[in-house]
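Exercise: predict the fold of this chain.
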Amino acid sequence: MSYFHKALYISSAALMYLFLLPCPLRCAPAVSLSLDKEIIPLNKTFVCKLVVSWEGDADLYLVAPPHLTLPEGIEEESSTFSSISKGEFYSLTYSYTLHAKKKGGYLLPPIEISYWEKGINKEEKIKTDELHFKASSLGITIPGKYLLAGTLAIILAGLFVTLIVLNKKKKRARGEVRLETAITKEMMLRELEQSNAYRIKGDWENYLQKVISIRNKLPAQDKGEHSLGNLDTLAERITYGGFRPTPEEIHLIQRQLEKALKRAFPDDKDKELDGIEFQ
């Protein structure tokens, strides 16, 4: 076997191993840093948010409180902390109320966050991106003889800006819906691969739990409440009664899952779901 083929074989084996690992072993927490305003008004408060999130339980990671380093000219008035659990996601939000003492451009350096994974006594670190923003004082002075023309110009400009903002909000809302759909789909594809791995090993308990998790992520009209009820009953029989499903029952579950996924993504342009084979 040539050196090239050996390297290709080792790389493929490593990728397959990583792909079959449970998500918490492969996925580090995600972090983001943002402001609530695009233009910072001088001497008025604005909010800087730091969000740390991950897929899994709240106690999956222990996160050390972050330290915010402020540039000269920016002062902190107060800070708050909150946490939220949504489905299989958990997030920590640190909010800092700030104000700018002088106008100009500012750079908020990256924030480094330490965390520890449950059961592993090893400190890991993640960093945010740096954040650029501007503080400015806005003012308009209009001579008396141009007051009427200036007023009309301001009104027209306000209407124009309002139309632009409304259009941007609509586009942003559509983009957020597409992003949420893409994230949900990616999660389902990953869980689908894990469920297939459990099915191949004959681990019916974990297999059914993954199938139920996928069905729960589907839109309400595609979940199939009756099918979910049957799956819950079957999972309880396997877990507590030692029941082993027949090949026909497994085949039926797979076909129902395939149909539900196709209904949920009827206009899937990248055809990722078309490559899934249910045996």
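Check your answer against the key: Residues 177-275 form one domain.
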